[in-house]
């Protein structure tokens, strides 16, 4: 049975999702990392006017989930799933059918992303003609394997006054826009800092806590004129110093598109090693015409 997510079921669903996302074969992107964060994330989906999360049940057991993470201003959503553990193809399809009305009502496009070993979700994306728009490798560096130079004096925290310069460097279509990233940087465990030359921002890096032992370099970007000058290296080495020495991470991850060989070579030179690969898809949501009435 597939039902809309109810508040009374939030805790077991959050714990189930955490367990699923720990397994590479079920991993989906954009789902929070620990059960408490997942609880808060899916709780938000229960506060909307229409159903934005669905659970598949086999008696008292959870066997599937699909959440719709909305970005109403962009008319885009990110899919938290679909995930299933029994009759996977069948349950995934039923979850998608349940979600279709909400998708058609509110969005022009839906995105999903998962590890390349999530065979069921990759098959689902292909079956429903999602467009593959990005393949991204995640590289990992362990604390005991890290070696980096003294941080550059040109690096300092980014504040609200730098918003316009930051926005000019931040890529369009990123999973956090500039305003979201700046707001998140003020939360405990997150850092946003920039490389300044003569008072001007020429590069930035955003470091986020994923788990107590894991940090992620979510973004590192350098102005066109500053590329090739060692700014990216300086920013990453600063992040490693902060992450390992100050925040006591056991490891730090960074992602790179498979087409960006220059960035990947830099990360590998700094000691990062390939961990896993994420496939990201996009689908235009088409409103289905009403059924033809027979006379």
Task: Describe this protein's structure.
The protein is an alpha+beta fold. Helices cover 31% and strands 33% of the residues. It contains eight helices and twelve strands. It has helices at residues 10-21, 35-45, 88-106, 119-127, 163-169, 178-185, 231-246, 261-269; strands at residues 2-4, 53-58, 61-71, 76-84, 109-115, 131-142, 155-157, 191-197, 200-211, 214-222, 251-257, 273-284. A twelve-stranded mixed β-sheet has the order 1-2-3-4-5-12-6-11-10-9-8-7, with helices on both faces. The chain is elongated. The model has no long low-confidence stretch (mean pLDDT 92).
Give a short summary of the structure.
The chain is an alpha+beta fold and 295 residues long. Helices cover 31% and strands 33% of the residues. The chain has a twelve-stranded mixed beta sheet, sandwiched between helices.
Helix/strand layout:
Elements: E1 2-4, H1 10-21, H2 35-45, E2 53-58, E3 61-71, E4 76-84, H3 88-106, E5 109-115, H4 119-127, E6 131-142, E7 155-157, H5 163-169, H6 178-185, E8 191-197, E9 200-211, E10 214-222, H7 231-246, E11 251-257, H8 261-269, E12 273-284
Parallel strand pairs: 4-5, 10-11
Antiparallel strand pairs: 1-2, 2-3, 3-4, 5-12, 6-11, 6-12, 7-8, 8-9, 9-10
Helix pairs in contact: 1-2
